[in-house]
Specification:
Layout lengths: L2 H7 L4 E2 L8 E2 L8 H4 L3 E4 L2 E5 L9 H13 L6 E4 L17 H21 L36 H5 L15 E6 L9 E5 L2 H5 L4 E6 L11 E5 L2 H11 L2 E4 L5 H8 L1 H7 L4 E5 L10 E7 L11 E6 L5 E5 L4 H12 L6 E5 L14 H12 L3 E4 L2 H7 L6 E10 L2 E11 L11 H7 L5 H4 L10 E8 L14 H19 L3 H8 L3 H14 L10 E11 L3 E11 L5 E11 L6 H20 L5 E2 L2 E2 L18 E5 L17 H13 L10 H9 L1
Parallel strand pairs: 4-5, 6-16, 14-15, 18-19, 22-25
Antiparallel strand pairs: 1-2, 3-4, 6-9, 7-10, 8-9, 11-19, 12-17, 13-14, 13-16, 17-18, 20-21, 21-22, 23-24
Helix pairs in contact: 3-4, 10-11, 15-19, 18-19
């Protein structure tokens, strides 16, 4: 492997062990082109078929890309059938990550559909065609007033979901299907653990027992795995209890150890910031007008659907694998390498994913299912429990921020943002220690995402440090953009207060990008005046904004109220969103609403703690997500600045939590510096 090729690979990595070494399988991330897109769309006898090149995981990208195809082909909605292909039917495409599906795939698809349309018009009904690159201005799909694009249409698979049709991998049923689970020590897989003892005789006596599998390929990082296979899902619990596995593990840690590793002030004292986002010279001495420390904890993806996979070998040893993954081709690569199979002997079937948010990118349950199916020579379904999701998956890394700002004549003059965190793209869930140290010679762009200051300032310095943690960390919705936005927009709000300027006006004075100013004006206009508080309540309004990956823009206004006991309620969230040309306004609004709820969780509930050398929570009761009674009215204004479509899936997360924190500051005078918000602290301020 060439060093340059490794450093440019990026993305999420999963360890695949070879004889004598431990090199990870590197995910391949090809850029989708118009010639590739010809393999996505087909025509036969007046009917069209679209093979979906993206994973469908709630963003309803199948609906949007079908709109593009129907518009460009000039056909009715019912003339085109959408299908999720397996890996043998289509050339490799990159993982479904980063809000890239419309941004990167709509244009190649439209170009391919234009080629197909013209070929059919010329009487060519057989064979393959070469696509011609065309600018957006020459494509029907991106013109205003179309039949399909820019309008609400029926959601693909919508009826199947509400009627319980088998669209998820957990719904797969095969003849002779068995059920599996892999047991591990109750400690983080970053700590070496092995099986000490077990009661195999008792386990085999359990009704429904099929097999006990000990295979080195079940190892996850430093954690030995023991597979069990049963005839029913319920038997797995009884077998696990009877087996009574006892484990040996090395080392120990708690939450205090994690906090110390990312502590920004410790890093400032040591001068240990290796990576730069802005590199201007800053006078580190003297007084600061704003000096904030913001601490944001570990957080889970918490998908409603725990990850699952179904593996089945045929009589000739070919493997079919059904997965709920963001990268079906990567699953194929890992399973082929670990099981020693050629790619043409493995077909990976993508299924609709019930929530992923960056967490279903590495190969875990998919390999476990394949190993167990190979061992018992029958189809095996393996689904993680909720506790396994929390304790064996990777999570948003904690981050600790120190932001210091000097103002001059009420304007930003010197900005210094230092923070400590852990790896995101180069996750320890896939990289061994020695290889992660190689990546540390460059940087982790996922951690830096969103740390660019989008405001005019004479001098900007932003720097960060990375520490490998004893728990798994990796991509979480928006990567570093959410935590960085929360810290930065909290500081900007304090700057506005120090300058004595309205928070919206202060941001408009400093906004460098006119599209950022556009969403600020739009959200301010929609929000209107803050209603007066009812007797016994305190009310506040906050604003925050940001740019996601330099292509999409958002501004959010939050309104909150507190009662006499300090109980906090978010009463309204208003979002203005600009992602360029909008293919489906309903689905863009839905993505914004999902991000608003994620931001609500960042502010009010998201937190994982480490206990006894592992992630402590094992259920939603212990690590709650926002519930329906916490969700305020959500208003979304779409600002169409035109141009190429940008990403909508993760943009609003950069501003929502900060808008809520800024509203609390307005209502109480308290600047929240540790998240999620401690209502006990607010109760103290309310009564004083």
């Amino acid at each position: 492997m060439r060093r340059r090729g490794f450093l440019q690979a990026g993305g999420v990595l999963s360890v695949a062990f070879l004889a004598g070494c431990a090199l990870p399988v590197i995910p391949k991330r090809p850029v989708a082109g118009y010639e590739d897109a010809l393999g996505w769309v087909r025509h036969r006898e007046g009917r069209y078929e679209l093979l979906l090149p993206r994973v469908e995981m709630g963003q309803n990208i199948g609906t949007a890309l079908k709109q593009v195809a129907c518009e460009e082909l000039g056909i009715d909605w019912d003339q085109l059938t959408l299908r999720l292909p397996h890996t043998g039917e289509m050339a490799r495409v990159r993982a479904t990550v980063g809000s890239e599906s419309v941004k990167d795939f709509a244009l190649p698809l439209a170009q391919a559909c234009a080629t197909l349309r013209e070929a059919l018009a010329a009487g060519h009904t057989e064979g393959e065609r070469r696509a011609e690159p065309r600018p957006m201005a020459q494509l029907r799909a991106f013109q205003r007033g179309g039949r399909h694009v820019g309008r609400a249409v029926p959601i693909e698979q919508g009826q199947a979901i509400v009627t319980g049709a088998p669209v998820y991998v957990a719904d797969v049923r095969l003849p002779g299907l068995l059920f599996g689970r892999v047991l591990r020590a109750p400690v983080s897989a970053e700590r070496a653990s092995t099986l000490g003892s077990m009661n195999e005789t008792a386990a085999r006596a359990v009704k429904g027992f099929v097999a006990l599998v000990r295979d080195e390929r079940l190892q996850q990082a430093s954690s030995e795995g023991i597979g069990i296979v049963a005839r029913t899902p319920g038997a797995l619990d009884r077998i696990e209890a009877a087996l009574d596995a006892r484990w040996l593990s090395q080392g120990g840690f708690g939450q205090a150890d994690i906090d110390q590793l990312v502590d920004v002030d410790r890093r400032l004292a040591d001068g240990g910031f290796k990576y730069r986002v802005h590199e201007d010279a800053i006078d580190a001495h003297g007084e600061w007008d704003v000096d904030l420390r913001i601490d944001i904890p570990l957080a889970a993806h918490a998908p409603i659907q725990p990850r699952a996979a179904v593996a089945a070998f045929d009589a000739e040893g070919r493997l079919d694998l059904w997965v709920g993954s963001q990268d079906v081709y990567y699953q194929r690569d890992v399973v082929c390498q670990r099981l020693g199979l050629d790619q043409d002997r493995v077909r990976v079937h993508g299924s609709r994913v019930g929530g992923a948010f960056g967490g279903k990118t590495i190969c875990t349950v998919e390999l476990e299912a394949a190993v167990l199916a190979q061992a018992v020579r029958q189809p095996v379904k393996l689904q993680w429990t909720r506790a396994q999701e929390f304790r064996q998956g990777f999570h948003r890394p904690p981050s600790s921020h120190r932001i210091r700002v000097r103002l001059r004549d009420g304007r930003l003059d010197q900005w210094w943002h230092a923070f400590g965190s852990s790896h995101i793209l180069f996750t320890n869930a896939g990289l061994p220690v020695w290889m992660q140290r190689l990546t540390d010679f460059v940087t982790d762009a996922g951690v830096a995402r969103g740390a660019q200051l989008p405001y005019r300032c004479a001098s900007k310095r932003a720097e960060f440090a990375l520490s490998r943690l004893p728990v798994f960390t990796g991509p979480w919705r928006g990567l570093g953009a959410g935590p960085n936005g929360l810290a930065m927009e909290s500081a900007i709000d304090e700057c506005a207060r120090q300058a004595g300027v309205d928070p919206v006006a202060f941001r408009l004075q400093h906004a460098e990008d006119p599209r950022l100013a556009g969403v600020l004006r739009a959200v301010d206009a929609r929000a209107g005046a803050l209603p007066p508080a009812a007797p016994g309540l305190r009310r506040g309004r906050g604003v925050a904004c940001g740019i996601y990956k330099q292509v999409s823009y958002v501004a959010v206004v939050a309104e909150v109220e507190l009662d006499a006991r300090g109980q906090l309620r978010v009463t309204r969230l208003v979002c203005a969103h600009d992602c360029g040309t909008v293919i489906n306004p309903d689905q863009v609004r839905a993505q914004c609403e999902g991000n608003l709820v994620w931001g609500l969780g960042m502010a009010l509930s998201d937190r994982l703690t480490a206990v006894d050398s592992r992630i402590g929570p094992g259920s939603f009761a212990e690590a709650p997500i926002p519930s329906l009674d916490q969700i305020p009215p959500l208003e979304v204004v779409l600002v169409e600045a035109g141009g190429a479509p940008g990403g909508a899936g993760e943009t609003a997360i950069v501003a929502t939590a900060a808008a809520i924190a800024n509203a609390v500051r307005e209502a109480t005078g308290v600047r929240i510096q540790r998240f999620p918000i401690d209502t006990g602290l607010l109760a103290q301020t309310t009564t004083t």
